[in-house]
Every structure is written in C-alpha cells, then in structure tokens.
Design goal:
single chain; about 160 residues; mainly alpha; Arc Repressor Mutant, subunit A; two-stranded antiparallel ribbon; about 45% helix
Length: about 160
C-alpha cells in the first residue's frame, strides 16, 4: 500500500477538496450542472432538495469558484449558475465516483450510460495512468517530495546532455 509520509493535512489536497465538495448535495448539484441545469428552480425541481439547503450549497459552490452566478441574458431578474473552469476540472472525479458506485454500490443497471459523442460508445473506466500513458495500480504508486522530483529531473537532464 502506498504510504503518504506527510503528516501535515494542510499540505494535502484531499481535505481541501472535501471542504468544498464533501457532502452529497454538492455532488448532486454538480451532476445537474454538468447536465446543463442552471436555474435555481430547475435545481429545486430536479433534485427534490429543500430551498434553504440548495441556496446554501449553491452559495458555497460559487464562493469556492466551482460555479459562477450570472444574470440571465433574457431576464436580468433571474440568475444562472454555470460551471467555471475549476468546476469543469471536477468532471473526472465525478465520473470516477459514479463508475465506482455503479460497480460496487448499485444493484441496478443504469439505463443512462455516458458515451463518446463521436462514435456513440460508452466511455472507458477512469484509470490511473503514468506520465507516459502506462496503466498504474496501487502497487506502482509512491509519494515523493517536490524537491525529490526536481532533483530526479535535473539528474535525467544531466545524463542526456
């Protein structure tokens, strides 16, 4: 098993991510946003979430830069919630969690399958790949410090020269 030798949780991205996304409704709102839901009332209807919880979660996602809150082009009294670049970067994590849930947590076979628009075929499982494209398993992973990585790169450049 890979062992993270850094004991300082403040230096780990996981607690940061969980602070922003660490509860069910945030993920459900994001799933809806990835499916082009953008109005408060539409989130409310689709998710069956309480108004106050939806309002709180949307505000939190906006505060963290995951969603942007913009006036509607056709009615300035209404607002739209749109994914930001930071929000779009959560897509691989969302898909990996969904695939895991479909594999291990669900007894139902989903009717809707995410497919490549070009050829209509289902997407491949989200996997861990090395910088050169090799498929990696947990046994292939090791934690290294930024200084170790920099030293390794410098040594490799010296050997090439």
């Amino acid at each position: 098993m890979m062992k993270d030798t850094s004991c300082d949780l403040a230096q780990c991205g996981l607690p940061v991510a969980l602070e922003v996304m660490g509860e069910r409704w945030s993920f459900m709102i994001l799933r809806a946003a990835f499916n082009n839901v953008c109005h408060f009332e539409d989130f409310l209807t689709l998710l069956g979430i309480a108004r106050n919880i939806l309002s709180n979660r949307l505000a939190r996602l906006v505060d963290h830069g995951i969603l942007a809150r913009d006036p509607c082009a056709d009615d300035r009294r209404r607002v739209e919630y749109r994914l930001t670049a930071k929000g779009y970067d959560l897509l691989p994590a969302m898909l990996a969690l969904r695939q895991w849930g479909e594999k291990w947590g669900s007894t139902l076979c989903p009717d809707q399958v995410l497919c490549d628009e070009r050829d209509g075929q289902p997407i491949a499982p989200i996997l861990i790949r090395a910088h050169d494209g090799r498929l990696l398993g947990v046994q292939d992973l090791v934690w290294r410090s930024q200084s170790e990585i920099a030293a390794s790169r410098k040594a490799a450049e010296t050997q090439v020269a």
